[in-house]
What we know:
By secondary structure, the protein is of the alpha/beta class. It has helices at residues 23-33, 43-56, 64-75, 100-110, 121-129, and strands at residues 2-4, 8-10, 36-42, 77-81, 93-96, 114-117, 135-141, 149-150, 161-168, 174-180. This is Dihydrofolate reductase.
Amino acid sequence: MHLSLDGFVAGPNGEMDWIKVDQEIFDYVGTRINKGNTALYGRITYEMMESYWPTAADSPTATKHDIEHSKWYAQVHKVVLSKTLKETALTNTKIISDNLSNEINELKQTEGGDILLFGSPIATHSLIQQNLIDGYWLFVNPVILGQGIPLFKDIKDKTKLTLLNTHQFSCGVTELDYIVNKQ
C-alpha cells in the first residue's frame, strides 16, 4: 500500500496523484506479487482494476508493466469485500459481503500463496479492526499531505510489528515490510 510520510493513503477526495511509481518499483512489486495467488480488493478498487487490467496488455502502447500485470491479474484469484456488489461475471472472483472474520480466516487456511490486499482503504480499515491483517507491505512516498484518508483509523489496540525488510528506490520511495506479532 502506498502512503504519505504522514500516514495517508489518498488525499481528502481520494487523490493519488502524489504516488510515485516507476519501472524499478513495478519490477520489485512484480516479483513479490507473483508469490501471491489471491488478490483482495474493496469494491471501489476492484471496479478500478476491472476497468483497466483485463485489456491493458492489448493496447498498442502497453508497457512492460501493463503486459506483466495484466497477465497476473487474469490468473490470480480475486476476492472483493463489498456489501453492495452482489455478483460478477468473472468466474475467478469471490465476493465477501458478511462474516468477514470467518471468510478471511477460511481463505488463509485454504489458499497456497500470499493473500495480497491492494489499495482499498475502507476494506483495510475493516480488516485492521478485526485483527485480520498478518503483515503490512508499505511504500512510503516522500510527501506530507497534511490531510486525507488515513491508513490507520479507529485503532483500538496496540499492534506490535517486526520489520522484515526495507528497500529504498531511486525515486525516493521507501518500502517497509512488516509482519504482525500475533500474541
